[in-house]
């Protein structure tokens, strides 16, 4: 684990089970990056994502508009920044688990854990470090981009 990951994690608030507040994320591979927060109504981060390729549970119909996970979640906002900037890698620290990695928030494939590879440019990667105890412990996963959900 890099010193940058440790330093970013140490600034994160504890998130005991049941705490509901916006997720905070920090891109640590870019020294100029500002913290990113979940939430908001700006659908811009999903403008180049073909959401019709994502099927709604339980009937499998395409989404009529981009599901909120594509523009409200920190990982997706950073993926959009990567696409806009032509970046091939990002390393991110979150003060929450990536949605879809915990039993309580699996959403039948409409979650960051499932969708991130498709919204990352082909050949790119995003390493996500999550901590819910202020940087004492971490979970890490690297997502390999395949660009399968991006419009040509």
Tell me what the structure shows.
The mean pLDDT is 92. The protein contains 4 helices and 5 strands. It has a 5-stranded mixed beta sheet, with helices on both faces. The chain has one domain. A hairpin with an 8-residue loop joins strand 4 (125-130) and strand 5 (139-144). The chain has helices at 3-10, 69-72, 74-85, 112-119; strands spanning 24-27, 36-37, 89-94, 125-130, 139-144. The chain is α+β, with helices and mostly antiparallel strands and 152 residues long. It starts with a helix and ends in an 8-residue tail after the last strand. Residues 1-66 are annotated as: Disordered. Residues 40-58 have a biased composition (Basic and acidic residues).
Topology readout:
Layout: H1 3-10, E1 24-27, E2 36-37, H2 69-72, H3 74-85, E3 89-94, H4 112-119, E4 125-130, E5 139-144
Parallel strand pairs: 3-4
Antiparallel strand pairs: 1-2, 1-3, 4-5
Q: Would you identify the regions where 5 or more consecutive residues have pLDDT less than 50?
A: none
By secondary-structure content and strand pairing, the structural class works out as alpha+beta
Placed side by side, the strands forming the largest sheet appear as 2-1-3-4-5
Query: In percent terms, what proportion of residues is strand?
Result: 15-25%
Radius of gyration: 15 Å
SS elements, strand count? 5
- Range of helix content: 10-25%
- Mean pLDDT across residues: 92
The N- and C-terminal alpha carbons lie at a distance of: 36 Å
- Globally, the shape reads globular
Count of DSSP-assigned helices: 4
Pfam family, one: DddA-like
Region (Disordered): 1-66
Biased composition (Basic and acidic residues): 40-58
